[in-house]
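[User]
If only I could read backbone structure tokens as easily as an amino acid sequence. I have put the entry right below:
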Amino acid sequence: MEFPLHIASYNIHKGLSQFNRRLTVHELRDRLGTLGTDIVFLQEVQHSHGLRASRFQHWPGRPQHEFLAGHVYTDFAYGKNCVYDTGHHGNAILSRYKILSWENEDSGRTRTVPPMRTKAAACCSARSKCRGWRRRFTASTCTWR
């Protein structure tokens, strides 16, 4: 018998509130811990950002995906999507199960988004095996950037 897999997906907007006024990453970690999910797909995860780290007093001392995993999710994968002078952000997968392998893929495909901005898709994928499952599975989170 295979057990159900509980999954959630969340765009965390780099751990900030609307208009980047307030740091929300601590609240996010508390909420994620109460969901009871096995895997969480996260979009717009801030890995590093020198200016924001100095602006917000309680900015985590480690990348957001590691901070958000806390003691609930024992494994994680991060895929860098957007790089800039002060840091980078991307997609992440948090898992209660061991991630056997992972990769970050930039599709290279672009599309035009009003007002005339070009975006490309990027996906972070992880291969894992759940307790009680006979087969391994691949989980992916993708975003247009």
Observations:
- Strands lie at 7-11, 39-49, 75-84, 87-95, 99-113, 117-129, 136-144.
- Residues 7-144 form a domain with the Deoxyribonuclease I; Chain A fold (CATH 3.60.10.10).
